[in-house]
Structures are given as structure tokens and as C-alpha cells.
Amino acid sequence: MKWTVGVHDSLVDLEPRVGIKHGKQRPCLAIQPSEFGEAGLESTVVLPLTTKVSRADAFPLRVQIPAETCGLERDSDVLVGQILAWDNSLFHWELGILPDGLIEQVAAALKDFLDI
């Protein structure tokens, strides 16, 4: 599997909120190769982002994304431990492609978190 294919930030409607699952519209990092969507898969695997950033190093559970990356207005953390598969109809727009260095950090965090 190639972790870097199709990785981008998207604004996704995560309503309704249930348990620890985030509610509201929020940026999410799509971590699924774009070829799956192009082949007709109706969902995309994402990691939600939060602006409640951790002051401590929380790797592999979080990867910090600086403000202005992909148009983000505030520093954010990718919530690696909250992997979701979300219906493509709930994606509102693409914010941008994540820089290679951050893609590598997220890929390393996922591999560590999933123990693969």
C-alpha cells in the first residue's frame, strides 16, 4: 500500500456526534488512495483534525499540522486514533494537498498506531 496517494485535507460533515466521535463540520485528512473513489467506492477513510492541539508530543496518536498548511487558519492536530470511513456525499470541498514531510509523519504514526 502506498500511504501518500490521495492524501489531502477535506471539510467533512461529521454530524451527528455520538460518543467520542466528533460532530460538526471539520477538516479531515483523507488517507485512502484516490483510485478507490475513482473506481466507485462510496466512502473515504479519513482522520479528523482538531484545533485543540496537544502541547506535549502525542505521537503516534497525534501529528501536528501548522496553521496555513492547506489553508488551515489555526494550528491543528491529526487525530490518528480516530480513523473513520465516511460517505463521500458528506465531503464539502478539498482544502489542499498535505506536504510530503507531513504525509510521512502521518504514515509513520498510522503504522505505529496500527502496529503494521
Structure write-up:
The protein is built from 2 helices and 7 strands. Strands 1, 2, 3, 4, 5, 6 and 7 form a 7-stranded antiparallel sheet that branches. Helix content is 17%, strand content 34%. It starts with 7 loop residues before the first strand and ends with a helix. The chain has one domain: SH3 type barrels. The chain has 116 residues and is an alpha+beta fold. The longest helix has 15 residues.
Number of strands: 7
CATH architecture assignment name: Roll
Rg over alpha carbons: 13 Å
Mean residue pLDDT: 81
Count of all domains: 1
> Would you give the CATH topology?
SH3 type barrels
Number of helices: 2
**Residue share in helices?**
10-25%
Largest sheet: 7 strands, antiparallel
CA distance, first residue to last residue: 11 Å
Q: Give the DSSP E fraction (strand runs of 2 or more residues).
A: 25-35%
- The helix/strand class is alpha+beta
The geometry reads as globular
Order of helices and strands: EEHEEEEEH
CATH class label: Mainly Beta
List unreliable stretches of 5+ residues. 1-8
